[in-house]
């Protein structure tokens, strides 16, 4: 799997004399080991649980590769969530192999050796181009894993009697390992998602950290509102949040939704190209992904001028009541869908009271009709963790059609969305989009709101904004 030297399409050829000259006169560079000091022990336990589900088999879980943006330009690399969960390693190009006896080996790119041409001339792997990387011995110590050069992986796979591969993550590996048992490979993906549904203690600390940094990003956005008011305001505020994400975390965990005015009624508005005007609401749905790659997913609705109008206030408080009802429904043993139905009962009642649903509440809630969905549009939350929509491949009976269990972390985010061109709603409601989104942990007795540091009620949002405005 060794790649030819990548010297780009526009660099000069390398004369032999230069190659020789560049090969000498260097000392070893300092290379950081960016492994969280506590992750190795947790990852070992997770590997043992996974191996226990597939006794006697080889399991292959790659980190993946950075997607190409154009030609030789790549999007920033982010290792796959399953690989991250099993290793704690953030380097690109790694592949974890669990042997039938449970022994774990991480095959990963060795940095080019000091003195080699690749060291200084290779744009993809070269240290001079990309920075120094830890050698495999040091990395292995930090991860408490046996690390071997990636070049040994093909031979290791050839000797494996039966290997299940997590497919769709690393195209090289997908091509290298012939598909002999597609259902068996898919079972590995499902097993990983099922296992990841329940977070361990350390994961909860990481998620809480992501939420805390995200809360600081929301404060930054509130402080920046005066400067952002005007054309291009959504872009400015997206940048404001992103700066917090980059300085205290790794990245944002998904494209931030910075939606002023009627953009808030577009569920996944992420162009963020619009102006921010006084009197409007700003819906901010954003999450920082911290260095260990857990992400928050929080939404607040902010009155740009600092105060909700009476109409904005009433719709906001209706959505908050739905959010309260949903949180009250969170407990181990409750169906995952229960909190959604609790929120929908509140919102449907409100929509009947507003005269928008012209029927009885029973008719409105009839599962065969669900007409309220014209204005609620989507489900009320999802699992959250290493991925914003975490554990998406989990067995339905353990997730969407299953029951909540202590250790699950999820969002609660019912909302109301009145499209600007909806002729069935009064003019003053058109273009309003309201969502409050909290991140919660299911505990032994109920739930803990990880995002409780941010205000929820309209009054608390207003006083929080006033305090930040100084
Ligand atoms: N920000 C995406 C979501 O709330 O699901
Ligand atoms: Mn969400
Ligand atoms: Mn969200």
What does this structure look like?
This protein has a five-stranded mixed β-sheet with strand order 6-5-4-1-7. Strands 9-10-12 form a three-stranded antiparallel β-sheet. Helix 10 runs antiparallel to helix 11 and helix 12 packs antiparallel against helix 13. The protein folds into two domains: 195 residues, Creatine Amidinohydrolase, Chain A, domain 1; 269 residues, Creatinase/methionine aminopeptidase superfamily (Creatine Amidinohydrolase, Alpha-Beta Complex). By secondary structure, the chain is α+β, with helices and mostly antiparallel strands. The chain starts with 15 loop residues before the first helix and ends with a helix. It is built from 16 helices and 17 strands. A hairpin with a 2-residue loop joins strand 2 and strand 3. Bound molecules: glycine and manganese (II) ion (2 copies).
What is shown here, in short?
The protein has 470 residues and is an alpha+beta fold. The chain has helices at residues 16-22, 39-53, 81-87, 117-121, 127-130, 136-143, 153-159, 171-176, 182-196, 201-228, 233-248, 310-328, 338-353, 361-365, 373-376, 458-469, and strands at 58-62, 68-70, 73-74, 95-98, 104-108, 146-149, 163-165, 251-252, 257-260, 281-286, 288-289, 298-303, 409-412, 415-417, 433-435, 438-442, 447-449. It contains 16 helices and 17 strands.
């Amino acid at each position: 799997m060794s790649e030819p030297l990548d010297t780009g399409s526009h660099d000069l050829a390398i004369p032999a004399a230069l190659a020789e000259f560049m090969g000498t006169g260097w000392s070893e560079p300092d290379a950081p080991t960016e492994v969280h000091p506590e992750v190795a022990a947790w990852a070992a336990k997770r590997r043992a649980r996974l191996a226990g589900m597939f006794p006697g088999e080889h399991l292959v879980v790659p980190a993946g590769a950075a997607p190409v943006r154009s030609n030789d330009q790549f999007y920033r690399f982010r290792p796959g969530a399953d690989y991250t969960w099993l290793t704690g390693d953030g380097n690109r190009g790694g592949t974890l192999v669990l042997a039938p006896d449970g022994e774990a080996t991480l095959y990963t790119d060795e940095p080019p050796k000091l003195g080699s041409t690749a060291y200084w001339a290779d744009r993809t792997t070269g240290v001079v181009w990309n920075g120094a990387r830890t050698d495999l011995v040091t990395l292995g110590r930090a991860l408490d894993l046996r690390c071997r050069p990636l070049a040994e992986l093909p031979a290791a796979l050839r000797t494996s009697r039966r290997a299940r591969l997590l497919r769709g993550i690393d195209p090289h590996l997908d091509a290298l390992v012939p598909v002999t048992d597609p259902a068996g490979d898919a079972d590995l993906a499902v097993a990983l998602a099922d296992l990841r549904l329940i977070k361990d203690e350390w994961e909860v600390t990481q998620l809480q950290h992501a939420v805390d940094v995200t809360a600081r990003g929301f404060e930054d956005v509130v402080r920046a509102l005066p400067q952002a008011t005007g054309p291009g305001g959504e872009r400015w505020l997206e940048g404001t949040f992103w700066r917090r994400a980059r300085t205290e975390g790794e990245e944002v965990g998904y494209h931030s939704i910075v939606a002023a005015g009627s953009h808030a009624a577009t569920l996944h508005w992420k162009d963020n190209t619009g102006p921010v005007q006084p009197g409007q609401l700003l819906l901010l749905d954003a999450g920082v992904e911290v260095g260990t790659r857990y992400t928050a997913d929080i939404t607040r609705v902010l009155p740009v001028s600092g105060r909700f109008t009476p109409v904005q206030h009433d719709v906001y408080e209706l959505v908050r009541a739905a959010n309260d009802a949903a949180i009250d429904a969170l407990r181990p043993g409750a169906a995952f869908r229960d909190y959604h139905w609790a929120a929908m009962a509140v919102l449907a009642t409100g929509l009947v009271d507003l005269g928008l649903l012209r029927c009885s509440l029973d008719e409105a809630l009839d599962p065969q009709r669900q007409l309220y969905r014209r204005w609620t549009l989507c489900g009320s939350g999802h699992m959250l963790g290493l991925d914003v929509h975490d554990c998406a491949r989990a067995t339905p009976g353990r997730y969407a059609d299953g029951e909540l269990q202590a250790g699950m972390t999820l969002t609660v985010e019912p909302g109301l969305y009145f499209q600007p061109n909806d002729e069935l709603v009064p003019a003053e409601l058109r273009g309003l989009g309201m969502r409050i989104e909290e991140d919660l942990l299911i505990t032994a007795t109920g739930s803990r709101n990880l995002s409780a540091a941010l205000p929820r009620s309209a009054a608390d949002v207003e006083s929080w904004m006033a305090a930040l405005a100084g």
